[in-house]
Amino acid sequence: MRIKTSSALLPEVTRGKPVPVTVNGTAVEAFEGETVATVLYTAGLVALRRSARSSEPRGVYCGMGVCFECLVTVDGAHAVRACLTPVKAGMAIETNQEMKL
Fold first, then answer.
1. 10: which strand partners?
2. Order of strands, edge to edge, in the sheet holding 77-81?
3. C-alpha to C-alpha distance for 92 and 14, rounded to whole angstroms
4. Are 13 and 4 within 8 A, CB to CB?
5. Is the pLDDT of residue 99 over 60?
6. SS3 sequence, 4-54?
7. Segment 19-76, tens digit of pLDDT
């Protein structure tokens, strides 16, 4: 969920222009300047994959590219860190989890 309006407690909400992307084959709202992790989180995906060892769900943890917990497939490239990758128009993002929009 994104903040869409400002209030006395929040500064004015500004975003880049809308760009079309797909997540697991579903069209999702994204804006220039956002990371792939932001797009996934606002689409309701907090678990992006499962641990190879324990099958526990994994998602964004550190948010700065150190932990490698947010790995996704972007335009066919595997093991892309969602927290560091800026979204681009037409990007196809794949996770190992089902979307529940």
1. 7
2. 26-31, 18-23, 92-94, 71-74, 77-81
3. 25
4. yes
5. no
6. CCCECCECCCCCCCEEEEEECCEEEEEECCCEHHHHHHHCCCCCCEECCCC
7. 999 999 999 999 999 999 999 999 888 888 888 888 888 888 898 999 888 999 999 9
> Hey, what are 71's tokens?
């790995």
Measured on CA atoms in the order 39, 35, 63, 72, is the torsion positive or negative?
Answer: positive
Which amino acid belongs to residue 86? P
Half-sphere exposure of 98 (CA within 13 A, CB side): 1
Q: Element (H or E) spanning 74, and its range?
A: strand 71-74
| Separation in Å, CA 89 to CA 16, 31, 34, 59, 66 | 12, 9, 11, 23, 26
Task: Tell me if residue 86 falls in helix, strand or coil.
Answer: strand
Structure tokens at 39: 């797009």
